[in-house]
């Protein structure tokens, strides 16, 4: 019994140390050299934080529509007059599709999240988003940086751009969709590590490992 308790305490201590180290150690270790400005006005992107999940929101303009031409045919209202933001989130197929709310939590999606699961991308639109809300973090990008972010997100979809189709019957509402994505999901490499990688693609530094939104937010404040 005592041996089991000691093992559990060691495991908890190791997890705490790993999370702390993953937050304070920057990735990349050396701050990347920022490319010279391309002369375009700064573009604002957002990171949206939930209790355990993060999304990336980008301005819904012609550049975004051109980068993801399959969204409109999939039923996402990218030309709707009220749509100002295009929102992307990456995650495990089972937990994303089968657990839209905490009340829908089931053993099998939890088991897959703790082991390994295939991944999907969730895409939605939004109108006005207040940047003063505590769950919103904003970043300014140059035009070149924005293009790199578009490339990163586009390359996260499974298949070629002109062949991407939504997961049949998978949505939370009328106008959002799920798409097959590249990579595998587990508790160590989940939605927040994807968001962190997306932000690193534009030259921001995150922590070495940020499995939860809180440590990702803290690391962004520490290293940028």
UniProtKB/TrEMBL annotation:
<dbReference type="Pfam" id="PF09601">
    <property type="entry name" value="DUF2459"/>
</dbReference>
<protein>
    <submittedName>
        <fullName>Uncharacterized protein (TIGR02117 family)</fullName>
    </submittedName>
</protein>
<dbReference type="InterPro" id="IPR011727">
    <property type="entry name" value="CHP02117"/>
</dbReference>
